[in-house]
């Protein structure tokens, strides 16, 4: 397998796949895909083999994201899968339940009316099943309830000061596991 870290524009074929999924049809005129980049990133999976993942992020963070994933690759950080959210019809819950790491998705924050930073292309969720989002006693994904206790020593967990945390922070990203209003252990966003 070629070790690949590439950045490209979103072409017409990819755009067609996104419409009705990561770009809901009612927002077609709002989302300008020229503001986003399509990335391919090599990564190690839970099977310890090299895989090729796909992400869409804002142009302004694309180079940083490539560098972040190169560093994660270099330390052999394990990410189970990185597929476009369109593979899940834009359904974040299905993507999280399948432990899919993802970037762009034009959607609102769960249980809120505010646009998520995923809609802006400046947020990435990593291994979401094992790093759930917890707010007001609710756990997303629902099958992530077994991974709420962060005192357990599990290499799949993201924790403050660990290798993935330090790499994202170095590039000026923040981590949802440090929020006070909720805990979003899977979530990194550019600040």
How is the biggest beta sheet arranged? 3 strands, antiparallel
Indicate the proportion of strand residues. 15-25%
Relative helix content = 10-25%
**Unreliable residue runs:** none
Features:
alpha+beta; 3-stranded antiparallel beta sheet; 5 helices; 24% strand
Structural write-up:
The chain is α+β, with helices and mostly antiparallel strands and 191 residues long. It has one domain (5-190). Helices cover 21% and strands 24% of the residues. It contains 5 helices and 11 strands; from the N terminus they run E-H-E-E-H-E-H-E-H-E-E-E-H-E-E-E. It has helices at residues 12-18, 59-74, 92-97, 117-120, 163-170; strands at 5-9, 36-44, 50-58, 81-82, 100-101, 123-125, 133-135, 138-140, 173-175, 183-184, 187-190. The strands form 4 sheets. Strands 1-2-3 form a 3-stranded antiparallel beta sheet, with helices on one face. Strands 6-11-9 form a 3-stranded antiparallel beta sheet. The longest helix is centred in the middle third of the chain and has 16 residues, at 59-74. The relative contact order is 0.14.
Topology:
Elements: E1 5-9, H1 12-18, E2 36-44, E3 50-58, H2 59-74, E4 81-82, H3 92-97, E5 100-101, H4 117-120, E6 123-125, E7 133-135, E8 138-140, H5 163-170, E9 173-175, E10 183-184, E11 187-190
Summarize, please.
This protein is an alpha+beta fold. It has helices spanning 12-18, 59-74, 92-97, 117-120, 163-170, and strands at residues 5-9, 36-44, 50-58, 81-82, 100-101, 123-125, 133-135, 138-140, 173-175, 183-184, 187-190.
